[in-house]
Specification:
With about 60 residues, the protein is mostly helical. It has a domain of about 40 residues. Helix content is about 85%, strand content about 0%. It contains 1 helix and no strands. The protein is rod-shaped. The N and C termini lie far apart (about 100 Å).
């Protein structure tokens, strides 16, 4: 008497579904972090660039 094994396709479909949920979860985390980081960078960006250009000008200035 031979026992029939469960078809492997059901297991493959479950694995595929889990990968999709992990991908969606990863996207949700990235989007939520992006919603916080991008406005902060936009607010701080001009000050950082102004400081960088001032420091660069001082370093490139000829010494007397």
């Amino acid at each position: 008497m031979k026992l029939s094994a469960a078809p492997p396709s059901g297991r493959r479909e479950r694995l595929r579904d889990q990968r999709g949920t992990v991908y969606v979860e990863y996207l949700i985390v990235l989007i939520s972090i992006g919603l916080v980081v991008f406005p902060a960078l936009a607010a701080l960006g001009p000050n950082v660039i102004r400081n960088y250009t001032h420091t660069r000008a001082q370093l490139l200035k000829m010494s007397p």
